[in-house]
Amino acid sequence: MTLVKSIALSLVAALLAAGFTAQPASATSVLVKDVAHVQGVTGNQLVGYGIVTGLNGTGDSTSVLFTSQTIQNVLQSFGLSTTSNEVRTRDVAAVIVTATLPAFAHSGDNVDVTVSAMGDSSSLQGGTLVLTELKAANNLVYATAQGPLSIGGFSAGFDATSTTKNHTTAGRIPNGAVIARDMVTPIQSGDGFNYVLTTPDFKTAANLATALNHRFGGGTAGALDAETVHVHLPGAYNNNPVQFLADASDVSLTQDELAKVVMNERTGTIVFGGNIKLAPCAIAHGNLSITITQDNKFVPASFSQTGGGSQTNTHVKVQEEKRQLTFVAGAATLQSVVRALNTMGVSPRDLIAIVQALREAGALQADLEIQ
Fold first, then answer.
1. Taking CA 212 as the corner, what is the angle to CA 208 and CA 217, rounded to the nearest 5 degrees?
2. Is the dihedral of CA 99, 103, 107, 108 positive or negative?
């Protein structure tokens, strides 16, 4: 049996140069419709409780009491009276049904629904959702859902010989919900409306207001904060906000890119955003490997004794790889940083430790977000 422990050592020394000035992050030309949306124009979440039938013995067990009660209620609505002892639930599963009602939706439209098991059902494969009401946060019914489930996986076999692919206790019904009432979505409020940026940024908000004023005339738009830009509907578009939004959607503006690093230590994922800059610094990286092995050896008994015994021997081996110090010049771009770290043989997980050390040393000129 071998136990191998790898310890990644990261050493960063900031060598700040006198009078060093960081270069600003680059900017990209984008369209209004790609970076902003109208405030209030959004989807609404719906939820409902129902049952899935037609399961091949993979439904809820009798210990799930609310499934038995639901079956009794459904049968009672059809004029059949039953007791809990008369109900068997292995072909039925209680589920939660969710959907998103899009903005401007009208009665008669169809939307997809997601169905998720609530009890101890092992699979919803082959099941059909019974007519289920979907309600919004105001407790009003906005849609009804029904239909066969699409699982996107399978479960086959029994007990230890079973095979499962993907999640079989959740599925979707494409166009499975029918909207029962119109979704009222006001666009204009008072003398105009608000644009909301997908990524809040003061400079991008100011650029959006400037671009709209240049296209539709001065005083059309003004930035309220880093996320909101208020628009006064021009006189030429009175009572026609849809046409204004159509014309404004293709207006181009300059989006300021943020220098940001997002890291997920659980998965070892690291993403660099914007034009990352580094102050002058030196990076040393080394690996220390500790290997512990055990072997059993038979030791015979002495001449005065009979038999023998087993002796366990433990061996410890320590090996350290030597690496040279790598110097990164000032205002290094992301490309040069990644090239230098790849030359050092840095793994993604080691890179996370190095980036954290760069940030603490003041050499990384970017926001750091750890998930």
1. 150
2. negative
Nearest of 7, 13, 10, 80 to residue 279 by alpha carbon: 13
Q: Return the pLDDT at 188.
A: 75
- For the stretch 260-273, pLDDT in tens is 788 887 777 777 77
> Quick one: fold of 28-40+187-256?
Aspartate Aminotransferase, domain 1 (3.90.1150)
Taking 90 as the threshold, does the pLDDT of residue 47 lie above it? yes
Tell me how far the alpha carbon of residue 31 is from its chain's centroid: 25
On whether the CB atoms of residues 172 and 225 are closer than 8 A, the answer is no
What is the structure's pLDDT at 1?
36
Q: Is the pLDDT of residue 25 over 80?
A: no
Place of tokens 């009222």: 184
**Chain length of the chain:** 371
Closest C-alpha among 314, 323, 308, 284 to residue 296: 314
* CA distances in angstroms from 283 to 16, 286, 332, listed in the order given: 14, 10, 13
Where in the chain are the domains?
2-25+261-370, 28-40+187-256, 45-179
CB 144 within 8 A of CB 132: yes
Q: What angle do CA 146, 150, 151 make, to 5 degrees?
A: 125
- Please count the other Cβ atoms lying within 10 Å of the Cβ belonging to residue 358: 25
**Pairing, β 367-370 against β 260-264:** parallel
Quote the CA–CA distance of 341 and 12 in Å, as a whole number: 12
pLDDT digits 0-9 by tens, 287-333 = 544 454 556 666 666 555 555 666 666 555 545 555 555 555 655 56
pTM for the model: 0.66
Q: Residues with Cβ < 8 Å from 73, sequence gap 6 or more?
A: none
Please report which residue ranges of the chain form alpha helices under DSSP H.
Answer: 32-35, 65-77, 202-216, 241-248, 334-343, 348-361
